[in-house]
Specification:
With 236 residues, the protein is of the alpha/beta class. It has seven helices and ten strands. Helix content is 36%, strand content 21%. The strands form three sheets. Strands 4-5-7-6 form a four-stranded mixed β-sheet, with helices on one face. It starts with 13 loop residues before the first helix and ends in an 8-residue tail after the last helix. It binds zinc ion.
Length: 236
């Protein structure tokens, strides 16, 4: 059967090929192409406008080995667990499980102590990070917004995998909770970036000049994200 793919329309072949696969319309190419969405950890098939479902399935089937290899190369999924070390708000911390305690999650120097059953450690740590991120990122963004003389209505912490932050026209900023896992200078850059969007709703030269006034070392933060940002998506 011939299927006409209009922009935005997709067809599902996951069941037919025996694995989760995202199908998206190809922008211009006449060829079928495959890539891996590293954040979602799924293969993505770009399908040209006139392509049958059968052709798409055949193409994927031919490239199954490549897909499996590429998926296996992705960094493994990480969970916050007893003994796991990671960077939190610029400080190296190690999770320490206290099953008998009833204090939730608390920080003692570099030990991130977590009470309760082991199976809840990941969720508890994540909730703790989100709560602290909300407070810290709001405070830090507010200082920068005041410097620019811009109004900041609020900050929310999201679980998005598509971006580190976003700024709405209502002067509200969203940050990914994973920003809390980056070095301090990266946090500085991201706050400067989003707060600058309160003034400039684009990525013009004026916008970047504004970022530089708030965070002179901004390019180091940007480079770090390009290099290592992906590794943070290993945390689910
Ligand atoms: Zn931006």
């Amino acid at each position: 059967m011939k299927i006409t793919l209009l922009t935005g329309k997709t067809f599902d072949i996951s069941e037919a090929v025996g694995m989760d696969i995202k199908v998206v319309p190809a922008r211009s190419s006449r060829k079928l192409t495959l890539k891996i969405d590293e954040k979602e950890r799924v293969p993505v098939l770009s399908v040209p406008r006139f392509c049958s479902r059968k052709q798409a399935i055949e193409f994927v089937t031919e490239h199954t080995d490549w897909i499996i290899k590429a998926l296996n190369k992705l960094p493994e999924v990480k969970y916050f667990a007893d003994g796991e070390s990671f960077m939190l708000f610029g400080q190296n911390v190690t999770v320490e499980h206290h099953p008998e305690a009833r204090r939730g999650v608390w920080l003692e120097e570099s030990r991130l102590c977590v009470s309760g059953a082991a199976e809840f450690i990941h969720r508890r740590v994540k909730d703790y990070i989100r709560k602290r991120a909300q407070e810290e990122f709001y405070a830090r963004s507010k200082v920068l917004a005041d410097k620019l003389g811009c109004k900041l209505t609020g900050v929310s912490i999201k679980d998005t995998t598509s971006r580190w932050g976003s700024c709405s026209t209502l002067n509200h900023i969203n940050y990914s909770w994973r920003v809390a896992l980056t070095p301090d200078y990266v946090i500085d850059y991201l706050m400067a970036h989003e707060v600058s969007h309160l003034k400039h709703h684009d990525h013009s030269d004026e916008f970047w000049a504004c970022v530089a006034t708030l965070c002179p070392e901004w390019s180091n933060g940007r480079i770090w994200l390009k290099r290592y940002g992906k590794t943070l998506y290993a945390f689910k």
